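Section 3.1 - Work completed
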Amino acid sequence: MVSRQLVSIVIAVEAVALAVGLALLTGHGAWFAARERRLGSRLSAARAGIVAGLIDRPSHELSAALLEGLPFAARLRLLGDLEPSVAGAQRDELLELARRAGILDRASRLCRSRRWKRRLRGARIHTLLGAGEDHMPRMFDDRHPELRAEAAAWSAEHPQREILDRLISLLGDEATLCRFTVKDSLLRLGQAAVEPLKDYLATATGPRAVAGLEVAAALGDPRLLDAGFRLLRDEDPTTRCRAAELLGSLGGEDAVAAITAGLKDPAAQVRAAAARALGEGHHWAAAAPLVAALRDGSWEVRSAAGIALRRLGAPGELLLQRMLTDDDRFAGDMARLILSRPGAPA
């Protein structure tokens, strides 16, 4: 049996260890708080000096002495916070300050590292400050998806055509992170991305075209109309779905006619996508084909057609009311289900 004396010794040792741990934790917290207070005052002074230099003395170089005494992470945070608020000559001067302070050189060295996490850190510094034209384009071909995604994020602030072409080439990347970041950057680029995207969709087919069509539908630029017409005839059903969405977002008589023809596509998912596109675009001229789609053999298509008719407003709801007594039981049931949803007329 364990003696009471031994138990007491163990408890005493554990109590001492706990007390020492609490003391260390409290001491570290106090030290960290004091450090943050000192750092905060220096950051405020540096920020004020930089802002004053940019506003009051725009033709003078910002002295690297403004950042002296600040840790590298604090320097980076300060310049990164200021960068979105400046443009033109002020942004160039802020970037020059980062160069004189050694921040960009360090980022460049990191980008040349064999360790991908270091390369990623360097790439993120360049993205944060809007620099890295000599290093970031290589990241599009990096074997690690995190680096390719970072290059995609960086490109949103660099709308040169060669950069945009590299960015769009990643639309078919196997990594979800890359595809998501590419789409986000293209949407941020807006009109600058339209022509490169148009050229990409002029030859892309199948799954390679899907992500591009999603971006095209969100951009909603008429220059992308031809891509929608071409890819609505693609062999891949998912691609035809995205093409219908693009045409629906652009509208026009020819687009509506093409989408309406999609209501007879051999793939149910495409017919459903066509119905949704007609409804979301409020293309009331397609009401009769949507009524016919209520008799489709696919529940998905009937549901999409019914919802599309509801989106057309009063005329569509009137047609749904008439379908309640249709000879096709499935069409009548779908009309009844759609009309029973909240917001339906009594």
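Second construct:
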Amino acid sequence: MNILKHMEAVFVATVALAVSGSYLVDTLPQAHAKTEVAMAGAAVPVPVVVVKAKRMSAEEKQRSIEAERGGDARRI
């Protein structure tokens, strides 16, 4: 059997199986119970990171750039 000749039929059959399988899984009571439990676990607060530091002045920025580049601030 040449699969390329029947690719349209294979695609239609695959889509039909996927849609019917999805419908059947959604109708199962266990599937609904699992999603409700998973959603209840999502109520955990999201951790937040706060960074407190003072801003660098223009002179400090320039010194930092020079130190990073090895003293030559004009080199790009």
